[in-house]
Design goal:
Length: 133
Amino acid sequence: MSQKSMVDIAYDYAKQFDEPVPFKDIWEVVVNELGLSEEEAKAKISIFYTNLSLDCRFHSKPDNTWILRSKLSFDDATADIFLVKEDLDGDTDEDYEEDEEEEEESEDEEIESEDDDDTLNSNMYNAEDDEEE
């Protein structure tokens, strides 16, 4: 049984590969290294996956494979961030920006209409001022 954390065991395993490794292979190595029973493995797999996702040494690929960031070029590690994707409705990012602008305009109109009716607020303060005198 190892004294290493699950993520450190995964890191040591992933260092051996220059290509992405399937999550199930990484998990099998962790389970074997720690000598986890089937029940313990079921209880800890979600914690491990979360920790693996949060560990900045790892980079996940869309097909649930993982690779060390140190094995990637900068462009490969950041490629997913810069892609312009269509959402489920088929809208592009430009369409989304137009929708946001329309929402902001309608919110501004609502705020202006609320500012026009200050009588309630001014009466509330006047009533408190009268009580103090």
